[in-house]
Amino acid sequence: MVPLSYYVALSAILFALGALGVLTRRNTIIIFMSIELMLNSANLLFVAFARSFGDVSGQIFVFFVMAVAAAEVAVGLALIVAVFRNKHTINIDEVSGLKG
Amino acid sequence: METEVIVFLILAFVAIGSAIGMIINKNAVYSALFLILNFATVAIFYLMLGAPFIAMAQVTVYAGAIMVLFLFVIMLLGAEQLKKADKGEWQKPVAILFVVVLIVEAVYLIFGGGGDLLPMINEVSEVGDPISLATKLFKEYFLPFQVTAVLLLAAMVGAIVITKQDKKS
Q: ipTM of the predicted structure?
């Protein structure tokens, strides 16, 4: 049996790597993919604790997180396409129109 | 060492490696493919944790639908690679430092710091089979389920409205 702490550690590492991707990359699409990675590590934690407690509720929350992630990706990619149409770039540093 | 622990360690290696590959790859298409590999390994973790339904949903929804959408947008924009930007280079070492500190802290707290976490329940119960999942979902969580449906509809309408071309221009 794999101890629960292994799963928690793996989830923490994957989350940290996702945060690293958000902080270091300038490509908007890769930033989005890093956010997906972080959501996914949270899902892994949900399922691991659901197994640990023997309760199915954690898996249902994973289900909801997946639905929210799908909605987020649809709207986010639509925003990226709209920005690209106006600015012809997906570099996040060049999309600073609201900066004073 | 038990077989399951060895399988876990190999899969964890693949998951972390593909995550790093996703971050450092210059080409966005390769990053997306690495992320699909990562999602597939996480699906196998779900199978190991007795959640077959979630594992299949992971493969179809994440590795299937969402990543196809990502690849589609990358190809559509033709934005696989960014031109080299001078700005923001100082952020990289700072971000790497902070993330390493975060990982070390988390691993220390999980393994060394405060006692044991809850033990795993040993016998494989019927925790994750589709019947018990659906019973719980449609009895206890029926309202959130319907709210999710409304959310998905709103996201779909929003995505269409945002990307709609103006006829005048």
A: 0.92
